[in-house]
Amino acid sequence: MEIERKFTIKELPANLENQTCLIIEQAYLNTDPVIRIRRQNDEYYLTYKGKGLLAREEYNLPLNKEAYGHLRTKADGNIISKKRYLFPIDTPEFKEGYLPPADMPALTIELDVFEAPFAPLVIAEVEFPDEEAANSFIAPSWFAEDVTFNKEYHNSNLSLKKF
Q1: Is 45 one of the annotated active-site residues of the chain?
Q2: pTM, full prediction
Q3: Which top CATH class is 2-158?
């Protein structure tokens, strides 16, 4: 299960250049259900995503460069290019009353800076081990609107956007 919340941001963090950066290109073969191909640096994947906004099934299968290139020619809509910056959250904050389990995995902000034609769109995503943690999470002050339940901000819908 993929359990994540999505946010717009107020401004780019000052230390962006110091963070791990992944170069991502992704395209959609289908949007219902979501079947996506992705190049992330020099790795290639085919992904199936089930229905849902906060939580949904997700399966990733490895591809090679040739298979990715072949499937890319069959993609519908826009091909999405973005840089993903990874920000570990050292001390995540949660609503009063929620106690994260001792074995809770570390949380990371995935900050997606989209390239044309989507620029200047920037979306921050945080993945969680369960829905209770996701719903209890208090976003950092540099986050703006929670757009988790706004389908416009799902990449599969962005791929269909007309310019």
Answers
A1: no
A2: 0.94
A3: mainly beta
